[in-house]
Design goal:
globular; Transcription Regulator spoIIAA; 32% helix; single chain; 3 helices; alpha/beta
Length: 104
């Protein structure tokens, strides 16, 4: 029997992506909830934040998103913001963060 080192591994394969549905208003009172939902127990390479039902974000939310993005990047993963409503997109534009995040 031939051994192929490195060919097989106990490491699990990460799923390509996982969608996290975000909703409502995000401010300081929901910062932990936002962070926890995006960093939930997942091994997905790409975490997609579906923002289609988000109606408000403040600076605390933007800070939390930046921290989540940094945490995922340290693990070789990505945060993608999808279906961003016009009002939220405008906040990202006004704060010069639209280019910082991967927005679909």
């Amino acid at each position: 029997m031939t051994t192929h080192e490195g060919l097989f591994s106990n490491d699990h394969v990460r799923p390509r992506s996982e969608v996290v549905r975000l909703w409502g208003e995000y401010d300081a009172s929901r910062e932990d909830e936002l962070r926890d939902s995006l960093l939930a127990e997942t091994t997905a390479t790409v975490v997609i934040g579906d923002m289609s039902e988000v109606v408000f974000v403040d600076s605390t939310t933007l800070s939390a998103l930046l921290k989540v993005q940094g945490t995922l990047e340290l693990d070789g993963r990505r945060l993608v913001l999808d279906r961003v409503p016009p009002a939220v997109r405008r906040v990202l534009e006004l704060t010069d963060l639209l280019e910082t995040f991967e927005v679909l």
